[in-house]
Amino acid sequence: MRKSTKTMVTLGMAAALVLTGFANVSAAKKEGKDTAKEQPAAAQEQTALKAKATCTAAGKINVSFSGAVEWSEDAAAALIDEEQKEITVSIAKKANRSVVVKGSGMVKGKPYTLSISGVKAKGAAEFGTVTAAFKAKKLKSSCKAKKISKKVAVKSKNTIIVKCKGQVQTKDVTVEVLDEADNRYDAAVTGKSKGNIKVKVSGLKKGKTYTITINGVKTKKETNYASIRTTFATKK
User: Fold this and answer.
1) Which end of the chain is less crowded, N or C, counting CB atoms within 10 A of the terminal residue's CB?
2) What 3-state DSSP class applies to 169?
3) CA triple 48-101-58, angle to 5 deg
4) Distance between CA atoms of 78 and 160, rounded to whole angstroms?
5) Residues facing 176 on adjacent strands
6) Is 81 helix (H, G, I), strand (E, B) or coil?
7) DSSP state, 83?
8) In 3-state terms, the chain is what percent helix, strand and coil (to 5)?
């Protein structure tokens, strides 16, 4: 009887060891499957998000990403030129693989670096910043600016006529006026006729030189819209 009881105890322990072994193997397999499921997400996080930017003559910067992205609520854009000077830009339209940025004051043929913050690859853990370099569109036609106001007062609204070669056409036109210290002045295109573009600027001072840049303009002979940039001086 004692031998029988001892045998049963021994068999019970053996069975328990076998069950424990199966449980450990099952747990290991499950853990392996869970790890395998997590690997694609981890690999996605390690893949750097890339961006390609192209600039239109109208001052739009079209950015395409290397994959699907997600956006944070405080996503923003920043633009600097080759001298590390910042140029005002803003995000106009966001999509799951691209973004459109609007700006003004870019100079034809000059290189720029655009930074987009608050974006991440879809499924990644944290939002970050993506950069892309590009060159502004070149201008084929030349132009000159002429100050037509007889009086120039600091608080008055002044009119500038930009004369181009041939009949002028505009698309998503923007304008920027800077003084010699790169201070920006409020300016807007108010009309165009034949080869002239009419611009109103506020805050100009007497006897000073200014630079005006108009984006999104072309003559009838040209195919692509471009930017024109010139200087003018107010009367003393």
Assistant:
1) N
2) strand
3) 135
4) 30
5) 213
6) strand
7) T
8) 20, 50, 30
